[in-house]
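Morning run. Coffee first, then this:
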Amino acid sequence: MKKLFAFGILFTVYFSLTAQKTIALEDCFMFYKFYPQSGAELVFLKDGKHYVEIDQKGLHIRDLRDEKIDSVVTLNLPKHAQQFDQFELSDDETKLLLRTETEPIYRHSVLANYFVYDLKTQSTTAVCESEKQQFVTLSPDGKSAAYVANNNLYIKDLVQNRTIQITRDGAKNKIINGLPDWVYEEEFSPVDGNGMVATKWSPNSKYLAFIRFDETEVPEFKMTFYENAMYPRLSSFKYPKVGEKNSIVSVHLYNADSDDVEGEIMGLETTDYVPRIHFSTDNKLIVSRLNRRQDTLELLMALPERAIFDRDENKSYIPSRLVLQETDPAYVELEWESKLTFLKNDPNHFLYVNEKSGFTHIWYYPINPGPGETPKPLTSGSFDVTSFYGVNEKTGKFYFQAATPTPLDRQIWEGD
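And here it is:
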């Protein structure tokens, strides 16, 4: 009986194993059968108590304190704007930016048709009707939308319903305005999954800063796509292999009030990287400069009031001054630069995370240091800050994650 019982167990195990369906690579990487399912896309409102999500019924406004509360705003969208796959609220929470008919390009970049829906008037405006766009971003005042088409930068004036072309030299595999090239998108995009930003509005919506990539001298790489067709599709793009030339980058400042590019920011060498551009809360442009070895990171503040006009080049240049310099014998951790925080109530200071003390901590830096003023640590100790969540300026408190009491632990802390 024992032998029969053992044989029965072995037969059952063997049968159950052989009865399982074979896992194919297509199931993993084409049909995504084993990928985790995420929740509904939602966006938190500025009051900190509500969030919104969208489905076929409309815009749902939910209360974090009571999930039963649900007010629905019906969206009267035209047919060509109904099948959107992404939405974004304007800063004043009166407009929706909707993305439709999305076509992937590289890891993060896409081509799509974008629409702006006004929640007050229930009207829909196409950002561009003649061609698909890349990287559409609403101005903080909700009156304009900047976008890129065919490597040129444009602004759609949503009030007067007119389009302003900012650049005219964009060309495939030559000049890119307002979008990262392949290297920047791949290597300098934040780890949160969003692509690198090369166009940014100032908080007052007066200025639009953008990075220009001249990839003319970058060698071209050809790639073959074997798709469901008789002939493969060929694609070519600029791809610098080891030792080859990178794009030459420059940063430019557009003034929406005067409808003019004020100039090119000075202080960048041809071999420098510009992985980020920022605006302080009082509308000062801050440019990140990273050297080719990536062991020195500097923040430069643009000084448009001191712009210099070069008559020979018929071009304006904007001086800059050094705000911060960080060096490391190995390399500078760029991800912390993505968490750079400018303060609304204290525009002369910003928060930055670095390893200058030997551990990763949050520091309080002056933009315009007074006599004897130096950066101050807001956190200290024999532990690393592993995440920085932000600041509540009303209470003066900030929030972070720390690897303490041991490097294997993670705790959420509040500081002031």
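The CA atoms of residues 153 and 166 lie 6 Å apart. Good start to the day.
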